[in-house]
Specification:
By secondary structure, this protein is an alpha+beta fold. Helices cover 37% and strands 35% of the residues. The strands form seven sheets. A three-stranded antiparallel sheet has the order 3-2-5, with no helix packed on it. Helix 6 packs across helix 8.
């Protein structure tokens, strides 16, 4: 008939029926027929495959007509310290934040709610972290969580609203970050290196040096290092810088250049005592470079060159003196022994003969030995 309106609702749908823009019924799956003289009926159909009701105006309509509609929807709400994990047919679908609510169509799907008080149970269980990580809205959900991983040789410090609550060992942790401030600070407990570079320092004799220092340290008490110092690395850096200035500013340049290890020893002794009470251990300190100004380099090179020349001259004179003394001793022995003197003459003759290619002998061998070689017997 012309005044009969037929409405078909699928299994995966719900419909709101309006007469003159007023909600009069909620239609479930099936075929519905109504008399409608003057076309006063209107239908708004919703796909309930996704069970959540997200339209704000629909929520208002359902709330205003609670007596008519309450059998067709469920509202899940949380208080200020509570979150709710929503499972549909055993699968996690969403998270309700504190002081929030979500609306769901009542369907054949089984909707389960698990509530967690985030102030009493601050830590997220490993099971829940896995569930949240796999969720389609993981990026949104993580906004209400702090997730940190502490590796071997690290320590984690958990602060809740600025108060140290717990020391974390190696592992992966998650904490609810609703209605409270969660901070997890990771502290490295392995040996670390800190560089104090480019320090312009005056020596006791007013020479400007640029010094580079390297130090190795470990955090032995993470709680002290973090809670008693605003920044333990900056504190250590300043302590090394101050000790380096003391070590150099109290000595003249020559002493510093002659014994660089004295700087290391002084700095290490000065700083180690200062930082140990804050949970830090200084392992090693070493001066990497001592850089002189250009004009000072030239002067020192000249001094070194002069010292080397003087040493070479001393060595040369010492050798000449030794040679002269040896020659004098030889002369004295030759003066005392005629035989030794004649042997020296023969040795000289032999050296001369080695350099002569031809020799002419008059009087034969007997004449040669008689005239040139005379031995006193």
């Amino acid at each position: 008939m012309i005044f009969r309106k037929r409405i078909v609702i699928a299994d995966n749908e719900r419909a709101l029926l309006f007469r003159d823009r007023q909600l009069i019924a909620v239609l479930t799956a099936g075929v519905h027929q109504f008399w409608d003289v003057g076309d006063h009926l209107k239908v708004r159909i919703f796909d309930i495959t996704a069970t959540e009701i997200t339209q704000k105006d629909v929520k208002v309509l359902l709330r205003n007509k609670a007596s008519l509609c309450e059998a067709f929807y469920t509202v899940i709400s949380t208080d200020e310290n509570e979150v709710a994990l929503i499972y549909v047919d055993g699968q996690f679908t969403d998270l309700i934040k504190p002081q929030s609510e979500k609306w769901f169509w009542n369907t054949e799907a089984k909707v389960e709610v698990r509530r967690i008080n985030v102030t009493e149970q601050v830590e997220v269980s490993a099971k829940d972290m896995k569930v949240l990580a796999k969720a389609a809205k993981a990026s949104v959900l993580s906004a209400g969580m702090v997730i940190k991983e502490v590796t071997n040789q690290q320590v984690g410090l958990l602060f809740i609203d600025g108060q140290l609550a717990r020391v974390l060992k190696a592992g992966k942790y998650g904490f609810w970050n609703y209605n409270q401030t969660i901070v997890v600070e990771i502290v490295e407990t392995r040996a670390q290196t800190i560089e104090v570079a480019g320090q312009e320092i005056l020596t006791k004799d007013k020479v400007s040096l640029r010094v580079n220092l390297s130090a190795t340290f470990k955090v032995t008490d993470a709680v002290k290092a973090v809670t008693e110092l605003a920044n333990y690395k900056e504190f250590l850096y300043n302590a090394l810088q101050l000790a380096l200035r003391k070590a150099i500013g109290t000595k003249v340049l020559d002493v510093l250049l002659a014994d660089k290890e004295a700087i290391d020893t002084f700095v290490r002794g000065f700083v180690a005592k200062k930082v140990v009470e804050f949970g830090l251990t200084l392992i090693e300190v070493g001066v990497k470079d001592i850089i002189l100004p250009g004009e000072m380099k030239t002067i020192l090179n000249q001094v070194v060159e002069a010292e080397k020349a003087a040493k070479a001259n001393i060595i040369k004179r010492r050798e000449e003196t030794a040679a002269t003394r040896s020659l004098l001793n030889t002369a004295k022995l030759m003066d005392q022994s005629e035989t030794l003197r004649r042997l020296k003459e023969l040795e000289t003759l032999e050296k001369v003969a080695d350099k002569v290619s031809n020799i002419t002998v008059f009087g034969g061998l007997e004449g040669l030995t008689r005239d040139n070689i005379k031995l006193n017997v």
